[in-house]
Amino acid sequence: MIVSDTPSFGRVVQEAMPPLLLLFVWDVVVTIAYFTFAPKLLEIELPMTLFGTALALVLGFRDNSAYARWWEARSLWGLMINASRSLARQAITLIDDDPVKGKALSREIVLRQIAYVHALRCVLRGQDPLPEITPFLKADEIEELTGTKNIPNALLNTSARHLAHANGLTDSFRRVRIESTFVDIANAQGGMERIKRTPLPMHYRFLPQLFTRIFCVLLPIAIVSDLGILTPLGSTLVGLMFIAALQIGDDLKDPFSNTVHDVPMSAMCKTVEIDLLQTLGESAPPALVPERGVLM
Amino acid sequence: MIVSDTPSFGRVVQEAMPPLLLLFVWDVVVTIAYFTFAPKLLEIELPMTLFGTALALVLGFRDNSAYARWWEARSLWGLMINASRSLARQAITLIDDDPVKGKALSREIVLRQIAYVHALRCVLRGQDPLPEITPFLKADEIEELTGTKNIPNALLNTSARHLAHANGLTDSFRRVRIESTFVDIANAQGGMERIKRTPLPMHYRFLPQLFTRIFCVLLPIAIVSDLGILTPLGSTLVGLMFIAALQIGDDLKDPFSNTVHDVPMSAMCKTVEIDLLQTLGESAPPALVPERGVLM
Amino acid sequence: MIVSDTPSFGRVVQEAMPPLLLLFVWDVVVTIAYFTFAPKLLEIELPMTLFGTALALVLGFRDNSAYARWWEARSLWGLMINASRSLARQAITLIDDDPVKGKALSREIVLRQIAYVHALRCVLRGQDPLPEITPFLKADEIEELTGTKNIPNALLNTSARHLAHANGLTDSFRRVRIESTFVDIANAQGGMERIKRTPLPMHYRFLPQLFTRIFCVLLPIAIVSDLGILTPLGSTLVGLMFIAALQIGDDLKDPFSNTVHDVPMSAMCKTVEIDLLQTLGESAPPALVPERGVLM
Amino acid sequence: MIVSDTPSFGRVVQEAMPPLLLLFVWDVVVTIAYFTFAPKLLEIELPMTLFGTALALVLGFRDNSAYARWWEARSLWGLMINASRSLARQAITLIDDDPVKGKALSREIVLRQIAYVHALRCVLRGQDPLPEITPFLKADEIEELTGTKNIPNALLNTSARHLAHANGLTDSFRRVRIESTFVDIANAQGGMERIKRTPLPMHYRFLPQLFTRIFCVLLPIAIVSDLGILTPLGSTLVGLMFIAALQIGDDLKDPFSNTVHDVPMSAMCKTVEIDLLQTLGESAPPALVPERGVLM
Amino acid sequence: MIVSDTPSFGRVVQEAMPPLLLLFVWDVVVTIAYFTFAPKLLEIELPMTLFGTALALVLGFRDNSAYARWWEARSLWGLMINASRSLARQAITLIDDDPVKGKALSREIVLRQIAYVHALRCVLRGQDPLPEITPFLKADEIEELTGTKNIPNALLNTSARHLAHANGLTDSFRRVRIESTFVDIANAQGGMERIKRTPLPMHYRFLPQLFTRIFCVLLPIAIVSDLGILTPLGSTLVGLMFIAALQIGDDLKDPFSNTVHDVPMSAMCKTVEIDLLQTLGESAPPALVPERGVLM
Q1: Fewer Cβ in 10 A, N or C end of chain D?
Q2: d(CA C212, CA C56)
Q3: TM segments (chains A, B, C, D, E) (predicted)?
């Protein structure tokens, strides 16, 4: 996620330049052709106005849908952070702090929750979670996880199972309260998988791109007789507007896709790690900082 | 659901071709008629602009509603997956793992939940659920289900009834927690039935289609005097834009209708099957993969 | 609710005909007047475009609000169906199935819930609920209900009171779980009453109609000099578009108003009746089927 | 809230007349000036079209936000009605109906809830709640409330405190269920205070008004050369459209502001009073009816 | 937050003046240049109409998103107020009011919750929370907090831990109910951190500004041949409209950014302080009042 307060024109230019340059070259070609061959130009204002209005509407709706997906993805991670903190608090206060078994069980559940968020992040990014979670789990637990298809879910189940065997350290009511937090965690995970696995419908993914390109190709033809030599400037400007609207949707539509526009999962996992370790009263690593304006 | 990363132009063409071809032929006819009879053409720009703007707005709103239905359908299935995982976790950890009765009851409830999602999928697709759920249930339970009108609901009730008779294996608090998960499952099922049984209001279903067709018929007449010989190209292009906007709504408005634009229920049921079997510690079948870019 | 897959043109025509005919006659009058008196016509394109665009936007927002009301009404009935099923399941499994008292209490609560949904339907439709609920309740309970202003709420309270006196058949935790289901039911009922008793704000109800009519009256005057003899056709077509957009909002804005566009409450009550009777293991009536494409 | 089925043209005229009249007079002045001085008029169509489109969009978005506020306010009152009914049911069924202490405590909690909704209504309307709640509370409780800044919240706390001291009449589980209903009530109250205390952002409150006025002033100048003597008619009509759109937002943006467009809090408080008294088995006052089409 | 009922034209002018003045000067320059050099002007109406329409749509969508963020931020603070009141009520009524230990624990939890909201406010505003919370906590607790990265979360954990050690003053059910309120508080806090740490996507932040500026630069060139000497007036007016739409989004997009458009966190913290102290039966400070129309 890009968090810098000032726009990095370098980045903007880098992203928008290739299509813009192409567009500009085409605009120049059309203008030169117009002045060279001086064709009896067709008036295509009506269809272009209709086309442009309809396209603006379609891009607007799509940007809205894409933004909603991105914001829902971020909100689900927010819920995950909240639920992780609540789980840690509950693991410590709803399990009797028996000096031997109680404290060990609480600590183990809290560390496993740190492992859980790292595992989930890796799964959503298509990476192998095992190396990332090794520091937080016992060796035999890591071993058991090999071959498991849904590692985060398995971690959750393990915590629940250990809790079920914690005879005398808690009671049914408190276990049920912790189980409800597991349900919150499972729901947040399921929501993220839903966004990850369900792309925008096909027509929303490809047609806006197609129509924007066609629009940009036709635009200089439509305005060259009015704008004359200034056509490349005017056409590129309006084209940039539509390309930018297209770009917004493209950047946001897949919020777990490992781009700079991504939801910053590494930073959020680190936040969970810090908060949970401090809840245990242990020393915590520093928070992640943006690199060149980008928080991963 | 179409999941391929690149647009399958074959599919796009296949779907959009018939109306597009028809539109193109009509555009050619209008153009030829114009150059043949050279009628004193009427200027219908104002009504066409108004008509087009209003139509774009109507299609935009309808696409939005249809997308919301589709996304809600997908989200409800997401909730079903989450609730299924939570139910499995709870069946294992909130029922005492008494080696004889406890483990058997847990396993039975988890398997019945797998049967449940398969049954729900079949009901939503208008198929007979019994063959699909046979592998997960005992023979006498299958028999009892014959004649039942709402099989998924009956399965839920059966699990709840067995739990009620599990004397000594659980207590009221834990039973109530599992019952709350049954409520989540029932709510997700009810939401899907609502979407399945309540089509978009009549006017949203038929009028956009009617108006788009009328618009496409009138469009070449409106622009032929301006565009001349290029009319078929321009008219087809703008028409395609509106037809595509219409198509998006049509594809998404019935998310349980057995088309390639469907919510991928078979794949999601398989996900539940895998996750729940692995939670039981049993071997799981492979996940469903897309066939030619389509996940069913 | 209209559920037929193909549009019943009969119905569409029947509904849209009167305004359309009126519109057409007026368009013809304007056209004849134009050719008869050949007035030096005014150019009212700019205000008509502005007027039309603003009107389209207003109708679009209103349709959206009306659709949201209709869908919320439908969703609340969906929640009612879900909660009814959950209540039945809980009445059977969270009350001990003591052969004498327990089974009788469970059955009584389930039957009263069937009565409840029928009573709620009647109240929302402004009908007397007593005849409809008599088959499901004891005679003395019916008698007690006479004079009660909020019969559904009274039924809910009765079930809760009986449960409170079911000494030894349940415990506090299970009673509290059932009470939470009562809360869900009360919330769904309250939501429906809210929609029933709170019409769209006055300006949303009357002004769109007024403006659409004015627009349709002015439209032929605006285009007759361009379209000439084709004015009635063009004007009627564009007018139909706006009238249809108006109609959509009018049909959906009062979802409990006993029209064919209504939420199908009779069918949903029958669904509850069937599911709850089958949950009790008793024989169930057939489901309601659409009559001439309309489900009541 | 205006609930009459037919528009009261009297009211509409009364509200819209002053600005409309002003507008009409200005339109006439512009028209007369045009025909008197016959100035070489400027063509301001382009900026007016842009201005009008942008203004329509801004008004549309604002109307949407204002309507959402109004509907949320109404929904929160709906939740309050539901929670009040649930609290009454719980006070009667979750407290043992011990003939001496139990029944008295239940009745007292129910009556205090009636006082609560009346107090909340008065606070939201900026009125003194004490006179309204006196009939439902004991004299000494009224006395204690003097000087309390948040009277509804204090009433809630009193009920909770009495419940905490009801030794032997209830148990922890049932108390916790009633406490959860208190939480629902507190959440609804907090939501209403939020809407009351947080007006729409400044720019949404003042700029639409300013721009609509400027637009109405410029409109006749823009169209007088086209419409000639009909300018006052055309300009007033289009102006009315924009003024109406502005009015909708203004009416709805403050749903607790003691106008005829208000959420009908008096009627809803009476509904709570009736339902809760009937739940107690006591006689209830009649419901509030609309006066001249307005329900307060 | 600006709460004055009448627009402070001083403030409006102060904010809008610099860009407006710049715009006006540019408009004058263009007009003078037009009359001086009388260039053969280009007709750039089509691209300007397209550009303006698309820009209006983009600004509309962005304003909507920014308003949604602002309203969500306000709603989360509303939830925090509600949860704080509920926590206070629960701390007093769900902990036995044992004269020695019980009352002290209740009071300590309520005071710590006051400290919590003040701490959260400071963190969101980037200020040091320790000085603000000192009055409500014991000296040794303040000391422990030094070095903690997430102070509000630590306060919550402390309350939960004290509750866990309150042997005999409460029971598991009541503790679990209070823990659920802690979860509500943690969720509200997490939601605020999400809004604080996740700015609008880059393209939404910078591009609308860029495009609005370009639009305002081009506008007078587009209309000077039509409007002549009135160009500065017309262009500034339309420009103001777009600049205002841009400003709305800019003001609302960061609701925790210490500007006058902020969510009024100081006032809301004071509300919590008053309500909670009065719940304890202690004397409360006066509420915060707006200073020159602004509530902080």
Answers
A1: C
A2: 9
A3: 20-38, 44-61
